[in-house]
C-alpha cells in the first residue's frame, strides 16, 4: 500500500516537473524572440555597407535631423522627395560638409551654382552630395564614411538650409 502511494506521488511529481520545464522553455523562447532587436543594433556597426533613407517634402523638410553611421562603412544614402512641387520651386538635395565648414557660408556660396544643382564646382568642402530632385523623384549617393566625428548635412537649394539641415554622426 505504502509503496503504491509513493509511486503515485512520484508520478505526480514527474508530471508537474515536465509541466514546469515546458513553462520555463516557453518563457525562454519569448526572451530569445526579443533578443534579435539588440543583436541587429550591434550588427549595424559591423556591416560593411549601411543604407540610409532620407525623405523630404513640399514643406521644406527632411524626416531626419540625425544620421548615424560607423567608421569605415560604405554609405548608400537614398533621398526621396515625397512632395509634388517641381525642382525649380522646391528642389532638394543632400550635401555632407567637411568639418569646419560653416553651413551658412557654404549655402550662400552654393546659391551661385544654380546651373549645377546648387553644388559649387569647387567641391573642397563637400564629402558627398546627391543631385537636386523635385517632387516624386528619388536619388542616391554612395560614399565612404569619413573618420569618426560629427558632420553637418544640408539641402543647398536657396533658403532651405535654415530648416533642412542635420547632424551626420560617424561612430
Ligand atoms: Cu531643399
From TrEMBL:
Record carries keyword Electron transport: yes
CDD domains membership: Azurin
Entry keywords, A to Z: Copper, Electron transport, Metal-binding, Transport
Full protein name: Azurin
Signal peptide (UniProt feature, chain positions): none
Keyword Metal-binding in annotation: yes
Pfam family, one: Copper-bind
Family annotation (InterPro entries): Azurin (IPR014068), BlueCu_1 (IPR000923), BlueCu_1_BS (IPR028871), Cu-binding_ET (IPR050845), Cupredoxin (IPR008972)
An example molecular function term from Gene Ontology annotations: copper ion binding
Family annotation (SUPFAM superfamilies): Cupredoxins
Blue (type 1) copper domain ranges (all copies): 50-171
Amino acid at each position: 500500500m505504502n509503496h503504491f502511494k509513493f509511486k503515485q506521488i512520484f508520478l505526480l511529481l514527474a508530471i508537474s516537473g515536465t509541466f514546469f520545464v515546458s513553462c520555463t522553455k516557453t518563457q525562454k523562447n519569448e526572451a530569445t524572440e526579443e533578443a534579435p532587436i539588440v543583436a541587429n543594433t550591434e550588427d549595424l556597426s559591423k556591416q560593411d555597407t549601411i543604407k540610409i533613407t532620407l525623405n523630404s517634402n513640399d514643406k521644406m523638410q527632411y524626416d531626419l535631423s540625425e544620421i548615424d553611421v560607423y567608421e569605415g562603412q560604405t554609405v548608400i544614402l537614398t533621398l526621396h522627395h515625397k512632395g509634388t512641387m517641381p525642382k525649380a520651386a522646391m528642389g532638394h538635395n543632400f550635401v555632407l560638409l567637411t568639418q569646419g565648414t560653416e553651413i551658412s557660408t557654404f549655402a550662400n556660396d552654393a546659391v551661385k551654382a544654380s546651373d549645377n544643382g546648387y553644388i559649387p564646382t569647387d567641391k573642397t568642402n563637400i564629402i558627398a552630395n546627391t543631385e537636386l530632385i523635385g517632387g516624386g523623384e528619388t536619388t542616391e549617393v554612395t560614399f565612404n564614411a569619413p573618420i569618426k566625428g560629427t558632420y553637418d548635412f544640408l539641402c543647398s537649394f536657396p533658403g532651405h538650409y535654415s530648416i533642412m539641415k542635420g547632424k551626420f554622426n560617424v561612430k
